[in-house]
From TrEMBL:
Keywords: Cytoplasm, DNA-binding, Phosphoprotein, Transcription, Transcription regulation, Two-component regulatory system. The keyword Transcription regulation applies. Residues 400-499 form the HTH araC/xylS-type domain. The keyword Transcription regulation applies. It is found in: Cytoplasm. It comes from Paenibacillus macquariensis. Residues 2-119 form the Response regulatory domain. This is Two-component system, response regulator YesN. SMART domains: HTH_ARAC, REC. The modification 4-aspartylphosphate is found at D54.
Amino acid sequence: MRVIIADDERLIRLALRSMIEEMSLNIQIVAEAKNGSELVKLVDEYHPELVFVDIRMPEMNGLEAMDQGSQLSPHTQWIVLTGFSEFEYVREAMRLRAVDYLLKPIGPEELEVSVSKVAAELEAKAKQLDNLFETAVNSLLHGTRSMEEINSRYPLQDFRLSITLFGIDSHMPELDKTRLRYQWIHGLKETYARQVPFSILEHAISFVTFPNGDIAQIIGWHKDAEERTQGYVSEMNDMLNQQMKDYERSTCIVSGFQSEYAMELVNLEKKLLQLQELLPLRRILPSRRLWMEQDVRLMMDKPHYRDIIERMDNLCRLAYMQDFFQYTNELKQLEPMMNTLAHQDPNALEYLRESLNVSLGCRLEGNQSMDQWMKSLESVQESRLAEQSLAELSQGDLIQRVQNYVNMNYMNDIGIGQIASDMDVTPNYLSSLFHKKMGKTFTKFLTHIRMVKAKELLLTNPALKVQEVAERVGYYSTRHFTKLFLDHFDCYPSELHQKSATKQL
């Protein structure tokens, strides 16, 4: 929390600073002011979360400065200080929405209680905004609400977004990879909470885990805070780069790709798909760092890069699914591409070697021949195949648990990422396994269950409106629900609704 102290007496400013710095709270005193005019300028410059303001100051008194400063920084909280206890001052301070009114001399205990109250309110406000933002983002990505409904329910039409997509590669067991993802998200949230003033800059943050295991960090800020936000972009990216380096270990690599700055919510889905197309490039780029979309997009236009990363991603997917036959075929297709890469871009081949070692658990050495690499990659998959029979015993039960979960929660805003987390496996693994065992994707299965339940409601409850039926099966957009129903049953829900009502007569 960033704080400004405003008092015309230097000793009082020093005393306040000393007491605040001794508190066990995350507070940064960014400036001091000795008069009201100076305070207004500092508030406009720093947009602090909290200001201590003395009433009696030269040039402009504290209440006048508070009035002007509140217009420049609406989310700043104010604690009024004075040696005068007249009721008029209290009434005016409360009218200006001061959070507290402290009489001088101020004791450390009284001060800490007041500051702790402000910190708690700011934290609650930031969490509320985060929750609204996360609900809107997930509703959009899961298709449970239309863009029109999101804009009507949540005040996000004036927000601008930045997306960072993370790929976490590891050959560790599913439970360990799930923990890695949780630790990564939790670590980022803690870092931001300590170092970035999200509440005052009107920021909100959401993390989304996709079925293939990719993690999207979506940060939003109000357009009115855009100029102030620009000063934090490079600082936040430095934090991300440092976090990826700190996360370094022999069994895990984290890489990130970031979109251009300040997009609108309506472009979110399209941009996420574009970043997901680029993310496989991490396998032939220096790892454990953040890449800007515009810096790597040109690489996708080069066929030898695009083809090899697509093959490499498919190889890793087949390895995770223990499909030995297809894995071997894919490896044969990759060998000539890797030979070509060795001649055209030796550095990219070295980055690819590191990626394979971490993703598949092999031990490719830089001084080995390509034939030796191929034998090592085959050997790794043969070892996985030997363990396959044990894994098959538990897969059937896992898929049954997913079906049971959907049958119990289809009316909620659920996704494969959430279910995978509850079952201690990665979304990528669960999504691929579900498709393999059920013959359809999880999304199609969830849609099918919802449509069947909706049909049942329409036939048995003719008094229900179509909108009510849609909401009961997890859709808040009647238009989207109607389209899915028509695709599924080749008739509109309203037609089925009318037939049911006619039978009741």
